[in-house]
Structures are given as structure tokens and as C-alpha cells.
Amino acid sequence: MTRRATLLFWTGLVLVSLNLRPAAVSVGPVLAEVQDGLGLSDTQAALLTSLPVLGFAVFGALAPLAAARIGLHRTTLLAMVAVTVGLSTRVLTWSGEVFLLLSLLALSGTAVANVLLPSLVKRHQPDRIGPATAVYSTVLAVGLTAPLVLTVPLAELLGGSVEDGWREGLGAWAVLGLLALVPWVLMSRHDGTEEVSGPRIPYLAVARTRLGIALAVYFGLQSLQAYAIFGWFAQLWRDAGFSATEAGLLVGLLTGTTIPLSYVLPRVLVRAQRPALVLLAVLACYPVAYVGLMVAPASLAVLWAVLTGAGTTTFPLILTLIGLRARTPEGTATLSAFVQSAGYLLAVTGPFLVGLLYSATDGWTVPLAFLLVLVVPLAWLSVGLARPAYIEDHLPDAATRA
Questions:
Q1: What is the pLDDT of residue 197?
Q2: For residue 337, which phi and psi values (nearest 5 degrees)?
């Protein structure tokens, strides 16, 4: 790659990564205002909070097919168009149904781009998977934390109050999508000189391999933990005696902890002589935090927030493993699509089950014990997935020629 092309790729990578979470998490801080403003029923509000995981599961599976048909860079561009259009237009409607559909449009773009990032890194930086994954997962963590912390202040700044300015607070995140269009319009010209063909590794072929299934289960279990945490830990701390603002700050600290760790850990994993120890060390943060939250949720809340946030950095680590477990960009795209779409289908049960256990027991000991038990299969999978392997080697020859 020329210096200009390299700079363009890194700029595009950073900007697309910044757009992968605002559509999913920006509604949470103003959900009550959105529900009141649009007249959403409780069922519609619940559907709105479930759309991110469902969208990632459904649309992520289509990403490698779209990339094979129209090109990897053009598909990424279209994904950013969907994000920008969805975020900018959903705040203009007074219809709850239309708001849900436009939210789904934005989430479809984030799902596709989410799947294609490992493939883009494999295409442009095949010898720097660790550093490249560190960069985009760090920026992704920033894109997760910023909407959680800033949506309410933006609503108050732009609209005078949260009740009057929730549309402005949500719509402001479309600016990031608009910025991301610029480098990908230029990058999309690369697809014009490449042969467009069907996917070299069929989606269902990956689904029949042990490696693909193991990665998908790992991805699903770590996402289940993360979405349960993002969805319910603010309530946990409110029940422990913190105000809504204080609970929100603790969640912000939790997600903010992932920013520096997302930059460091993928590099460490790639270079480690015993990568299983890296995975297990990160996972070990969960049991300590969960037991601590059972016995002393308030007095050491800051420590438990930091440790829980450290545990959620299994996400950049599994993204790194996806890039390391395929030989080609095409293989990476298909592997990423299967792992993420199947994994998110598993993860969607997390917030629901935690909420069910919380309602049934009127406390947090049982929900935390449930999450604690699920750390065990993650630890077991970590040992196997740390061993070098390539998805292409697990497929029959006919599958790789499809």
C-alpha cells in the first residue's frame, strides 16, 4: 500500500469503529423520554432495547455475501450510509413504529461493518492484526462509552432539557456517520479493479466446524455477559443506594476501563507465548467482581466497576482471535459473520434471563451467580481457542472452492 492508501485505510478504520456502538447504546440514557415522546408501549420499548443484538445476529450474517457481490469497501460504505440515514431520520418521526424501523436500519449498518472489520484488517494489514485490532477495538470502546455518558448532556445542551432535547441528543451521533462516509467513498474505488465472485468459504461450511462453533459459543457467552452488564448494572447500583447519576457514572467508569485495555490486550495476545494465560487472566476479573458485588456492592463499587470492565475486554480478544484463525480476507469475513451472528443469537438471552432472575428473587445474588457460572465454559473454551488453527484447514476441499 502507498502511504496515502495506508493513511486512508487507518482513517476509515478509526471512523467506522467510532460508529459501531452509538446506534445501539445512545437510546438507553433517554429511553424514558423516547417512550413518552413517541408513545411507545412497554413491549415496543423492550423491543427497542433488544434490537441491537437481534440486528447484529441477522444482518451480520449477510455481510460476507454482500462483500463478495459488490466489494468489501463498497459494502462498508453502504453500511455507513445506513448508519447515517437511520440515526439522522429516526429523530424526525413521531411514529413509534417508524422510529423502530429506522433504528433497525442504523443497526443493520453497524452489524455489517462490525463483521467486516476483521476482514478489512486482514486485507490491508495482514501482518499487523494485533495492533490494528487494538486500534479499532479501542476506538469502538470510546464509541461505546461516549453515548452512555454524553447523550443526556447533549440533549440538555441542544434542547434545553432531556425531555425537550432527546431528539437532538440522539441525532447528534449521526455526525460521526457522516464523517465516516468520506474515507470510504474514496476506499470504495478499490473494489472496481477486483474480481467479484461468490464467497470462497460458505457460511454453512463454517457452521459445521468445531473451530467455528467454539468461536461462536465463546463470542456469544462473552457478549451475553457484556449486554447483561450494560443493561442491568446501573439498576444494581441504584438498588445498592446510589442515585441515578452516580449509578450512571459507575457504568461509565466500567465502560471507560475498556478503552486503554482494548488498546493493550490484543497486542499482548498476539505476542504471548502462552495466549491462554492472557484470556484466562482477563476472565478472572469476572469472578472477583461478581463475588464482590454480592457481598459489598456499595463500599467498593469503584473497584467492582473497574474489574467488571476489565472482564468485558474479552470482546477485543475474541475479535483478535477471529483475525488469527483464518488465512484470507474472504475466510476472515465468513468466519466473522458466522461467529458474530450465531454468537449474538446466544447473547440476546442474557439481559432477558438476568432480568427474569432479578424479578423472581427481588435481589442480585442469583443473577450474579448465574453470570458467575457462565464464566466456567468461557475459561474452558479459552484454552482450546488459544491453540493455533485456521478455519480453512477444518473445511473439506470442496467447501473452499465454493
A1: 41
A2: -60, -50
Q: To which residue does cell 463498497 refer?
A: 74
Kindly provide the b/e burial profile for residues 226-243, where b requires at least 16 CB atoms within 10 angstroms of the residue's own CB.
Answer: bbbbbbbbbebbeebebe
End-to-end CA distance of the chain: 29
Mean pLDDT of 84-96: 96
**What's the grid cell of residue 47?**
423491543
Closest CA to 10 of 188, 183, 126: 183
Give, in degrees to the nearest 5, the angle at Cα 79 between 138 and 178: 75
Domain boundaries, the chain: 1-189, 199-395
pLDDT of 1 above 70: no
Tell me the per-residue pLDDT of 189-230, one tens digit each, with 9 for 90 and over. 867 544 444 446 788 888 899 999 999 999 999 999 998 888
* pLDDT tens by residue, 368-378: 999 999 999 99
The pTM assigned to this predicted structure is 0.80
DSSP structural state of residue 367: H
Q: Could you give the CA distance from residue 252 to residue 292 in angstroms, rounded to a whole number?
A: 19
- Distance CA(133)–CA(357), nearest Å, equals 35
Whose cell is 457452521? That residue is: 207
Task: Dihedral sign for Cα 309, 312, 314, 320, please.
Answer: negative
Residue 236 CB-half CA count within 13 A: 28
Tell me if domain 1-189 and domain 199-395 are identical in fold: yes
Calculate the average pLDDT of the chain: 88
List the CATH code of the domain at 1-189: 1.20.1250.20
Name the CATH topology of 199-395. Growth Hormone; Chain: A; (1.20.1250)
CA distances from 4 to 12, 118, 133, 174, 178 (A): 12, 21, 21, 27, 21
